[in-house]
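Box 3.1 A note on notation
Throughout this textbook, protein chains are presented in two layers. The first layer is the amino acid sequence; the second is a token string describing backbone geometry. Keep the layers aligned when reading.
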Amino acid sequence: MLAVREDREQVAALLFETAIHDPSPDTIPSAIEALKQLVGPEHGLVKLSIFENLRRAGDEKGAADALESARDESDPVWLQFAAEWERTRGSKERSLNLLAEASRLLAQPDIYWKTFALAKEVGNPKVMREMIEGLL
């Protein structure tokens, strides 16, 4: 079984990724329960799953509250969710700042590209250059 906390964290991350990419309405609620068992109800992935479930249900206030309760600006996953939330709310500059920070923490090409695209859209050549440098 998954006795080691690191193993539980890895399985939780996989479950979370699978659930948020599955459009079925039952997937996230089921994942939330499984995540609670794996990593506990206060874990960031549980809170972000709750956020996503509320967002999909159209509960803007509940989603905003859930995202805030999950706030961890040192967590690149939270930063990406917060960036997307801000972008869909029309705050592209705030979204770019959050996504750029996630890029710095993750240093992964797909996040660099996403950040570059948003920086281009916003007209921020400094962040564009930073993302190119990250890709090199």
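The chain has a mean pLDDT of 92. Residues 5-20 form the longest helix (16 residues).
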